[in-house]
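Entry for the shared binder. Reason: the reviewer on the internal report wants the predicted structure included alongside the sequence.
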Amino acid sequence: MANVFSKRPVVITRGKGALVWDINGKEYIDCMGSYGVALLGHSHPKVVKAICQQAATLISCHASLYNEKRTEFLRKLIAIMPPGLNKAFLSNSGAESVECAIKLARKYTGKPEIIAVMGAFHGKTMGALSATWDKKYREPFQPLVPEFKHVQPDNLEKLREAITDKTAAVILEPIRGEGGIRVPPAEYLPGVREICNAHNVLLILDEVQTSFGRTGKLFACEHWSVTPDIMCLAKPFAGGLPIGITVAKEHIMSSLGLGEHTSTFSGSPLVCAAACAAIDVLINDRLADRAAELGGYFKSKLESLQAKHKIVKEVRGLGLMLGMELRYDVRNVIIKTLARGVLILEAGRNVLRFLPPLVIEKEHIDRVIAVLDEVLGEEESERQGSAVSD
């Protein structure tokens, strides 16, 4: 493969629920969840069954032809969406769902400008990258798509000042994921909605990481009773298979004409079958409620570590989308927890990010906390020893 992924020294060969095993048979508790994809856990039996049945029936069917499995998925999807979001374009990734949203906003409004926020992450294709903030992703590929601007996050006045008569849309993550698991103030998202309404600007919410029950609601925007004009979805919606979804209000999505935005793999029957099963599991097993309950438990345990270890600066998040900010770089902690059988993500240089499957058990959380407690203690001792020797 191209050398573009920061590799961890482990070969994963099997997964079940919130656990994965390496090539030597060692067990790990997975708080990475394939970067938020494995919300239902690895190889959920209902998703596996749906994939096998569909693979034996029909794998591919271009969207220029109708397909009943695609129709079934779209009906299930729209049934759980916030009211008014009732037309969808299907693609293959979160970045693709954002690309569609950008094109849709420009086409519907006839305006070019998109406003994003500092610290945002929306993907690495050229349009999504233009909305992404971090210069390490942006600078090697400039010039990017023009007419993007970034404003200070959680600041309604700065957003209001940035809107011009060229502004088509504002794009936001309800909770900034890669930006450090940043939960906005209670008044922020409702304020953004009011500003967009007042200026006739579209609101795009990137819920690629925050949807599908992750935060304790089906969609994170529901915590603030805010409905966007366009929503970007992806990661967990097909139970582990690649999918991207852009959902919009019908009159907005209908501004796209024939051939203006298509994809060869849009609405693959195989992916749609997996997605139908995934939505059924999400709803029938009440996984959003489970995320709220276990997320509260997990967060309280992380906060107990904050009280114990001075290396921990802050714990934040909603549901099972949690972050622990350290006072130092997190790389050593990630490598040491890996060696002890726990997989954890980073969110920037100094934040540990926890995106476990919603089927994780309390006993798994307790084991994660025990490992973290041990590793954080080691890190503090090593840093104290280094300071004394200096």
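Summary line for the report: The two ends are 42 Å apart (CA to CA).
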